[in-house]
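The freezer alarm interrupted the setup, so I double-checked each line after restarting. Inputs confirmed:
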Amino acid sequence: MALDVRPAPGGARVAPPPQRRRWRTRLSRLDVSLSPYLYISPFYLLFLVFGLFPLGYTFWVSLNHWEIIGGHEYIGLQNYSRLLTDDQFWNAVGNTFGMFLLATVPQLLLALFLANALNRKMRAPTLFRMGVLLPLVTSIAAVAIVFTQIFGRDYGMANWFLHFFGVHKIDWQANKWSAWLAVATMVDWRWTGYNSLIFLAGMQAIPRSLYEAAAIDGATRIRQFWSVTVPLLRPTIIFVTIISTIGGLQLFTEPLMFNSGYMNGGSLRQSQTVMMYMYENAFQRFQYGYGSAVAWMLFLLILVFSLLNFLIIRRLSRGAT
Amino acid sequence: MRVIRHRGRIALAMMLSATLAAATACAGDDTKSDGGADQKITLNVDDFGTFGYQDLYKQYEAQHPNIKINERNVPKLDDYTPRLQQWIAAGAGAGDVVAIEEGIMVKFKSQPDKFVDLKKYGASSLQGNFIPWKWEGGMSPDGSKLIGLGTDVGSIGLCYRSDLFKKAGLPTDRDAVTKLWPTWDDFIATGKKFTGKVGGDTKFIDSPETYYNTILMQEAGKGSNQTYFDQSNKFVMESNPAVKAAWDETVKMSQAGLANGVQFLSDQWSQALKKDAFATAPCPAWMLGLIKEFGGSGQSGKWDVAGIPGGGGSWGGSWLAVPSQSKHPKEAADLAKFLTSPQGQIGAFKAANNLPSSPQALNDAAVKAFSNPYFNNAPVGKIYGPAATSLKPVYLGADNQEVRQAVEADIRAIAQGKLSPGSGWSKAVSDAKKASGTG
Amino acid sequence: MKAVIRRRTHRAVAGSARLWQASPLTYVVLIFGVVLSAFPLYWMFVVATRTNAVVGAVPPPFIAGQHLGANLRRLFDNEQAHFAKALVNSAIASAVVAFSTVFFSSLAGFAFAKLRFRGRNALLLLIVGTMMVPVQMGIIPLYMVMVHVHWTGKLQAVIVPFLVTGFGVFMMRQYAGQAVPDELIEAARVDGASTFRIFWSVVLPALRPAASVLALFTFMQTWNDFLWPRAVLNPDNPTVQVSLALLNSAYFNDYTLMFAGTVVATVPLAIVFVVFGRQIIGGIMDGAVKA
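Predicted 3D structure, all chains:
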């Protein structure tokens, strides 16, 4: 696949004087052997300094009692053992997974459904694709501001709308379920269209002949969707789910803004995520060591969960075939 | 060909967004030109809430043509202090003059080297300008350095909506209203009467946590002069009767259905204020400015100020300090001296009703005679002034702010009906321990 | 001519057989989806054009008012929000990060796809590995580093760590593999061109389609970044997102000011979206097939 890039011996051009030529050959050889490393080095350098080192150092900090003022003291795994019995931490873990599931499951189903609709011969397909992608143009902070107003307790649009159905004013921030639902709505609104385009790409790669064969066998459209489309989309579904997992477990901006910028996520920490708990410990209580332990636990959770996801989805979609 | 056009268009669009941003920026910036002047020093002032310094800045800039003052206000105290801590610890980012609220003062005083000793800049002679305990409060723990100059003190009144009181058939005159509630239990009884008559979306009190803090500071001032921590920063919340008393009284209010569960200084609080959704709020002097700011002109004249149940108390109040990271410590110290001088405190009182910590200012005829039109011409100078000199300071430990926030969250959860009053107290204690890093 | 080519590629992607015809129901579903996507944006705009009298209005306003200009003026005149500065900061940071990411990613992608060197496969695998690492996890020490080099509160703190990403390198490597013919490089080499010369005048032009998609996505991502800027920047030198958060926690009583801020923060991305909608869609769909 790669090309042999060594210069051809004895160029066909007019030869320069011998000494200059030797110098040039040497330079050119140096160019060929060093350039690749030179070109890839910026990434590694940057990742080393701003990615790997902080991550490793986070681990070291997490082994210390480390506050903003004064020195630090090595305490081994004490921060971690404290974390394991910290109900606020587990509450944050529960919230993160709760909101993640509440957001991701409907989101992926909706995106599949939407992609299926987009995968038709129609007028102005680009217009519709752009239409469902529209939420991407705005920033998360702006989304959070708008939706927080929509979910206001006393004068929000959601409660105004629900009162037509006889629903009494919901204090969205005060209940766990309603806070999760509000945050999940923000996430879904933003990402459903995006994911549906990814699914659409996957669907377009499925050969039509499979559907024709299924149709001859008498399978309905719905049946075709579940027994042809979904199984063949497996790689795409795995990809989207893992990306959603990595993003979803780091949920931060939406619940933070939803709680008027308070890191605790509500009076009973109804919607505090792990990321917010990390931030609260590190940048408000200034317990860097403990905050770093939270960061590492989250890192491990993301790894484990991505793997779990991968296995489950592979099993599930295989079962469907 | 298409490919090349793409790249051109992308570069074009990015340029366009960048220029657009820059253009709008310039359009917005042209109001404040700082070019041209020779060697102007810009002093950044970090503060929170409403300090009422705008006119004083103008006055100071007029007297000192080489100084430009840039106030960097963060409205919420709870947003402000973590940032300030971060800047002070990082050794960069803090303003030249910073406001330090009483709840965080102890923590900062434990790092005296992070601040300039104001005595070195001629502040020693100013002792007589301050109530003794306010002056003491600005000294480093060993008493060798002067870290902060006092701004205001937080003696407490009680704000009420006279129009809503009228609707409930309650007296509206401020002296008569004060007589309604010698104790907090009387206050709750009044609230029940009010709720029976008015009802609907209008609650009697605003946020439970404002009442909780008020009663806590009041109780602490009567007894041990401490809240969650004792003077050696030992956690004493469980054994301190003041905390329990404030907790129980606030829970009673929530159980009586008086509380609007909104969080103090949240958008729901300000909406509730505008939409007549609460009829009273505890009013340390600094609160008057906040109610005026967030209530807007629509509420003007509807509010009034009465006495607080259960006797006097103090909540809030700040100092001005100069971080040692400031590049202009002398100029900054001079500005801090000016802002906290009797005349500066009188100016801040007139602008935002922040109650002076200077006896001269408190005795000033203009302060004594000052009445606030927004609060139905309540004579706030007369209501707040006399109590100020007799106040006793309450010791707030180093982790006061974190603990306060944790307990406030539980208080609010009870008002929201999400936490049972029975198990609330032990949860609050354990949350408080966690917040202070001792749990 | 161009239209024909585009159609043909579209059909090739769409699969061998013909697509089903969309039914009226499909249109209804899609229109409903588009309306749901657009409504919050529309409503954001509506509130930004009203006065604060809309707070708590029942029913909520659904039609634009006439106060957009006044609200924008108040937004830019507000000395605490530093919104103008925030816009400039975000524009600079996003543009610099986008251009730099494209440049360094193309360079590395070219090296991985077309140059032969020792350890190439292992190093490439390492890059794929880094894509799985959520960099945000390291913000505590990253912050300590910034304190140490006195970059807290400064714009470079949100630029320098993100000048090139593993994702970008990987994407450009995939694209370079198929888009740059080996013969072209060989010919340039025979002509005595240096490696960088080859990159600059042969490879980079061929990478343009992928490079523009990468630039767009990086621009949008940087524009939207929040967690790190909030930690490291100060309120008086913010990015747009940090300034929005400040508005949200400070001017919650000034509803229309806040919404004017969200509108202004959205405009630059909306421009990008309108001009490049097609490429963005193509980029998202291409990325999916490859991953």
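Quick read of the result. Confidence is low (pLDDT under 50) at residues 1-17 of chain C.
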